[in-house]
Design brief:
It contains 12 helices and 15 strands. By secondary structure, the chain is an alpha/beta fold. It has 2 domains: about 260 residues, Alkaline Phosphatase, subunit A; about 110 residues, 2-Layer Sandwich (Alpha-Beta Plaits). The strands form 2 sheets. Strands 1, 2, 3, 10, 11, 12, 13, 14 and 15 form a 9-stranded mixed β-sheet that branches. Strands 4, 5, 6, 7, 8 and 9 form a 6-stranded mixed β-sheet that branches. α10 runs antiparallel to α11. The chain is globular, with a radius of gyration of 21 Å.
């Protein structure tokens, strides 16, 4: 059993989600078309090795050794005495998207997967698009599964000329709306997303996503950082609600206020990239109050995984390793840092979608020795561990690593 402190007056628990940083195909990966995926190992091989001294010292390189068919991470060998407890999480919910992954690590189980739209044109039901057109006053283009960067190049000029929305989906449960910021202002785009969110609720669609872009023509179109996610409201209390109801301050950094539909959050730092999220986290580490800080670092998925860019992915991992080095130096004795991911997105894999993978699970507390945590059945072990750290009643699911 790991030692832990029940004194929480000045304890900060950081849960840092490296968005899409999977570590090897899950046992059910073939059912999702993802057999053979392995985000971090394949990325490392593609660039000739990763330099991640902080994550290596925490035990990242030890994790493949406990996975069935685990692949070594080139440049990140196993640590002889990891400074963090290390293991892997296997998802139990149906799906491989952002909402499913985050909700499960927050204590939920999605037994019936979110609604998926057809990949073929027309992807969306006629009654949905007809109501959306009527209520927003604009027509639609697209209505298919597509890469976001490709569809704005293909349809961006027509969108600018007609003022119609570009709507599309993917392998995830999403209704995505792209619009040029000079054609449809952000306020109107977000209002259109709220309409779509209301219309998609009866279908149990995980997210409606605003995808604004800019640029003069197809060769210059580029998505901006003004993306917003409009999520389904969680069906039961999450770790955020649970902690809040027991007097623990909850803070989210990144897009998590969107992922949890604003529920259970005392303070939201809605930043749009890894750099700004890491800056905010280092600032929070200087604070002296007890709080739970739930962080999403989005660049891995948004900029490099979906775009199949292993070099960019590797650079983002190495930059994050430097950030983690700085963060660990700021921890007080009772603080805790947990590092995990919500799904995979192998930048060397076919297609442009997420991949169904094991995700790493690293837990560091100053002055405590790390140990192997094995393969945890359910991301919700994360929520149970957080509840245990703060000394609150247990969540409905999961086993704390301290039990």
């Amino acid at each position: 059993m790991l030692a832990k402190s029940r004194e929480t007056q000045s304890m900060t628990v950081f849960l840092i989600v490296l968005d899409s940083v999977g570590i090897g195909a899950a046992p059910d990966a073939a059912a999702y078309g993802d057999a053979g995926s392995a985000t971090v190992p394949h990325c490392a091989s593609a660039v000739g090795g990763l330099h991640l001294p902080t994550l290596q010292s925490m035990g990242l390189g030890n994790i493949p050794g406990i996975l069935p068919g685990g692949l070594e991470i080139v440049g990140v060998p196993p640590a002889k005495a990891p400074r963090a407890s290390w293991g892997a999480l296997q998802e139990c919910s149906q799906g491989k998207d952002t909402t499913t992954g985050h909700w499960e690590m927050a204590g939920l189980l999605i037994e019936e997967g979110f609604h998926l739209f057809s990949p073929n044109h027309p992807s969306f039901p006629e009654e949905l698009t007809a109501a959306f057109i009527e209520r927003t006053g604009r027509g639609i283009l697209g209505n298919m599964a597509a890469s976001g960067t490709v569809i704005i190049k293909d349809l961006g000029a027509e969108h600018m000329a007609s003022g119609k929305w570009i709507v599309y989906t993917s392998a995830d449960s999403v209704f995505q709306i792209a619009a040029h910021e000079e054609v449809i202002p952000l306020d109107e785009l977000y209002a259109g997303c709220r309409v779509a969110r209301e219309l998609c609720d009866p279908l149990r669609v995980g997210r409606v996503i605003a995808r604004p872009f800019a640029g003069a023509d197809a060769s210059h179109f580029k998505r901006t950082e003004n993306r917003r996610d409009f999520s389904l409201v969680p069906p039961e209390p999450t770790i955020l609600d649970h902690l809040q109801s027991h007097g623990v301050k909850t803070v989210t950094v990144g897009k998590l206020d969107d992922v949890f539909a604003g529920q259970g959050i005392d303070r939201s730092e809605h930043v749009k990239n890894n750099r700004d999220a890491q800056r905010v986290v280092l600032s929070i580490a200087e604070e002296s109050e007890s709080q739970f800080v739930f962080v999403n670092l989005i660049d891995f998925d948004m900029l490099y995984g979906h775009r199949r860019d292993p070099s960019g992915y590797a650079a983002a991992l190495e930059n994050t390793d430097l950030f983690l080095s700085d963060l660990l130096l700021k921890l007080n004795d009772d603080d805790c840092v947990m590092i995990t991911a919500d799904h995979g997105n192998d930048p060397t894999f076919a297609g442009t979608d997420h991949t169904r993978e094991f995700v790493p699970f690293l837990v560091h507390r100053p002055g405590q020795h790390g140990r192997e945590l094995g393969i945890r059945q359910g991301f919700y072990d994360v929520a149970q561990t957080v509840a245990d750290l703060f000394g609150t009643p247990p969540m409905l699911r999961g086993i704390s690593i301290y039990k």
